[in-house]
C-alpha cells in the first residue's frame, strides 16, 4: 500500500470482552509512544481505538484489532485495523453522522473516531462484517 | 484439581528401595546440575529423600489414597517452596523429571522388553508428578492475581470528603463500564449519607475519555442534579480537552475546572465559604 515502508511491527489483539477493549487501548498506547506521537495525538488515537474496539465488541459481536507501527523515511505512525464478522453496517454514511446511534450511546463514536485520526477507511458488507482501518501519523 | 496419580508397581518400588542410596546420590547430583548450584546439596538431598520415600510408598503394595495424597501434598509443598526461592516452575518440574534418567541407568545397558514396558509406566507416573508441581505453581500465581485484582477494585473507589458539604471522587486509570458504575453509585450514595451539595469528579488520573466514559460522567452529573447536588468535573488535561472537543462531546452545561483546587474553591465559594489570606503579622 505504501512504498518504501520498513517491515512493520504488528500485534494482534482479540476483542471478546470489555477487558479486551482495555487491552487494545494499552497496546495502541505503547505503539503510539514507540512511533513518537505527541501526547495529544497519543490520546486521540487511543480514544479512537477505544471507540472502534467497543463498536467491534458491541455491534460486531467481537473480532480483532491489528496494531502496527509504520516507519517511513520521513515520518512514523500507527495503523490499527479492527475487523469483525458481524452483521455489517447497512448505511455507513448515516452511521458516521453525529448523533445517530443504533443503541443508547451518544452517537459520536464512529464519526468522532474519524475526526480523531488522520486516515480512516470503513469497509462493510451487510451480513459479512465490518473492517475499520485508522492511521495516525506523528507530526 | 486432578486426581492423585495412581501407579502401582511393587517391582519397581522394590528396585528403588534396594538402590535408594545410589539413586539419591545420582538424583541429587542431576538436580544440583540443573539448578546451577543455587541450592545447598544437603537441602536438595533432603527434599529428594522425602520425595523418593513417598514415591516408593505410592507405588508399593498396599498403596492407597492416603499414600498418593501424601505424595501430592509433598509435591505441592516442594513447588511452593521452590517458587518462593525464585525458581521457575520448569526448574522444579525438571528436578522431578531427572529421576527418570537415574532409574533408567539402574536398569543396565540392555534391559529386557518387559522391564522397558515397566519403565514406560513409571515414566508416565513421573510425568504426572511433575505436572502436579507445575499446576500448584500456577494456582499459587493465580491466587496472587485474584488478590491483587480485588485490592485494585477497592483501591479504585474512594470517595473523600474535602469540606463540609463537598465530596470528591478521584478517578484513576482505565475506566471500564463496571468500574465507572461502582464509583458513580458510591458517589451518589455518599452524597446522600453526608448530605453534601457539591461533588467533584477529578479525572486527572484518567488516561483517555471516550464516548462511553463521557456518557457515564454526564449521566452521573444528571443523577446528582436530580438529588439536588451539583457536580464539578476537574482535572481535564490539555490532551483530554483536545480529544473531547474533536470527538464532539458536549459538556456545555457541566461545570468543569482545570484542577481539583479550582473545583474546591468553586464549590466553597458557591456554598458561601470565603477563603482569605491572613495579614502577615497574625501568621
TrEMBL record, chain A:
<feature type="domain" description="Histidine kinase/HSP90-like ATPase">
    <location>
        <begin position="17"/>
        <end position="136"/>
    </location>
</feature>
<protein>
    <submittedName>
        <fullName>Serine/threonine-protein kinase RsbT</fullName>
    </submittedName>
</protein>
<dbReference type="GO" id="GO:0016301">
    <property type="term" value="F:kinase activity"/>
</dbReference>
<keyword id="KW-0418">Kinase</keyword>
<dbReference type="InterPro" id="IPR003594">
    <property type="entry name" value="HATPase_dom"/>
</dbReference>
<dbReference type="Pfam" id="PF13581">
    <property type="entry name" value="HATPase_c_2"/>
</dbReference>
<dbReference type="InterPro" id="IPR036890">
    <property type="entry name" value="HATPase_C_sf"/>
</dbReference>
<keyword id="KW-0808">Transferase</keyword>
TrEMBL record, chain B:
<dbReference type="Pfam" id="PF14361">
    <property type="entry name" value="RsbRD_N"/>
</dbReference>
<keyword id="KW-0597">Phosphoprotein</keyword>
<dbReference type="Pfam" id="PF01740">
    <property type="entry name" value="STAS"/>
</dbReference>
<protein>
    <submittedName>
        <fullName>RsbT co-antagonist protein RsbR</fullName>
    </submittedName>
</protein>
<dbReference type="InterPro" id="IPR025751">
    <property type="entry name" value="RsbRD_N_dom"/>
</dbReference>
<feature type="domain" description="STAS">
    <location>
        <begin position="156"/>
        <end position="267"/>
    </location>
</feature>
<dbReference type="InterPro" id="IPR002645">
    <property type="entry name" value="STAS_dom"/>
</dbReference>
<dbReference type="InterPro" id="IPR036513">
    <property type="entry name" value="STAS_dom_sf"/>
</dbReference>
<dbReference type="InterPro" id="IPR051932">
    <property type="entry name" value="Bact_StressResp_Reg"/>
</dbReference>
